[in-house]
Amino acid sequence: MSARAWGWAVWASAAAVCAALAAVEYFRPPPGPEPAWVVAPEVADLGDVPVGERVVTFQMTNPADRPRRIVGLNEGCQGTVCIRSRHHEQVTVGPGETFRYECDLHVREPGPFDLRIVVFLEDDGIRTVEIGAIGTGR
Fold first, then answer.
1. Distances in Å between the alpha carbon of 112 and those of 81, 120, 134, 137?
2. pLDDT value of residue 124
3. Are 121 and 99 in contact (CB under 8 A)?
4. Is the distance from CB of 69 to CB of 95 less than 8 angstroms?
5. Mean pLDDT of all residues in the chain?
6. What is the pLDDT of residues 18-61, one digit of tens each?
7. CB within 8 A of 135, min separation 6: which ones?
8. CB count, 10 Å around CB of 67?
9. Which of 10, 16, 31, 121 is the most exposed place for a label (fewest CB within 10 A)?
10. CA angle 69, 53, 132 (to 5 degrees)
11. One-letter-per-residue 3-state SS of 37-53
12. Among candidates 51, 37, 53, 62, which has minimal Cα distance to 102?
C-alpha cells in the first residue's frame, strides 16, 4: 500500500469513528430532571399555640447528586400570624443531606390561623414550594 493510500485509509477510519461518536451523542437522551426536594412537614399542624413567638422547623432534604440551595422565603403576615426565616442568607445543602430550616412564627392574637408561604428552592432552576402552619392562638 502506498503512503498516499495509507493516508486516505487513516483519514477514512478517523472520519468513520468521528461519525459514529457523533451519532451516539446525537441519539443519547438528555439527562432527566434531578429528584425534587423533599420538604416535611409541608404544613406544620401546631395545635393550640400561646400568643407570642415560637420557632417552626421544616426539614428540607436534597436528594440530588450535587449541592443545591434554599434561596429564600417570602416572609410576611396573614391574619393573626407573621413568619420570618431565621436564615437571612441562601443555604447550600449537600447531596443527600437534610437541613433544618427554622422560621420565627409570631401569633399576634387568639384564634385559628392557616398561614401559607412560599419557599424558593434551587431545583432545575428555581422552584417554589408552598409551606405553612395551622393552629389556634390561645
1. 10, 26, 8, 6
2. 82
3. no
4. no
5. 87
6. 666 566 666 655 556 789 999 999 999 999 999 999 999 999 99
7. 45, 46, 47, 48, 49, 107, 112, 113
8. 12
9. 31
10. 45
11. CEEECCEEEEEEECCEE
12. 53
What's the pLDDT score for residue 34?
84
Measured CA distances, 102 to 26, 48, 59, 85, 99 (Å) = 46, 19, 9, 6, 9
For the beta carbon of residue 23, count every other beta carbon within 10 angstroms.
10
90: which 3 cell numbers? 441562601
Of 109, 138, 134, 136, whose CA–CA distance to 50 is shortest? 138
Average pLDDT over residues 109-113: 96
pLDDT at 115 over 90: yes
Distance CA 69, CA 14 (A): 44
